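Structure in, sequence out. Go:
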């Protein structure tokens, strides 16, 4: 009789350890070149992320409406981004992975939360989503920083290390300022 609760506890704890931790390593190798891609916005208009590459430091956030960790991290990411809004070399892009049919719900969420950054939907390519596949997103939120050379300088899935994120953003913005 005592084996069942003990076995259940081991299975439960094992599952917790298999969940994606905030310290998960970079999803895509740092230094990888991001050339951009065209994704539809929540109104189904094409947005060419390539036009931002090389001009701005990009904070790219892959998220989902149903993601509990996203609900915790998105408000904190917005605080980080708002502090940088005045910097003309900075842009934040939300990439939603809930699917094309959810774009109305995503639009309503963004409007209700007064999120005024670029918001696009990931695009299904054959058997996987284009952004998710390019950035090797394994868990949401997937957070990436692309510098003005188009290189990925920060990449993390399943939670955010804010110290490392701010360090990557500050370094990339300092380099962008120095390379006017």
């Amino acid at each position: 009789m005592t084996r069942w609760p003990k076995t259940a506890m081991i299975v439960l704890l094992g599952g917790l350890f298999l969940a994606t931790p905030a310290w998960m390593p970079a999803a895509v190798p740092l230094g990888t070149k991001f050339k951009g891609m065209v994704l539809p916005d929540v109104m189904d208009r094409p947005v060419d992320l390539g036009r931002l590459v090389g001009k701005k430091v990009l904070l790219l956030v892959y998220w989902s409406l149903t993601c509990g960790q996203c609900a915790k991290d998105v408000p904190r990411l917005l605080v980080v981004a708002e502090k940088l809004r005045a910097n003309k070399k900075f842009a934040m892009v939300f990439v939603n992975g809930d699917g094309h049919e959810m774009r109305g719900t995503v639009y309503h969420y963004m409007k209700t939360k007064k999120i005024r950054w670029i918001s696009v939907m990931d695009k299904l390519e054959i058997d996987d989503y284009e952004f998710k596949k390019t950035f090797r997103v394994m868990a949401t939120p997937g957070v990436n920083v692309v510098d003005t050379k188009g290189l990925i300088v920060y990449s993390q899935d399943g939670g955010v290390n804010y110290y490392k994120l701010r360090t990557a953003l500050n370094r990339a913005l300092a380099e962008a300022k120095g390379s006017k």
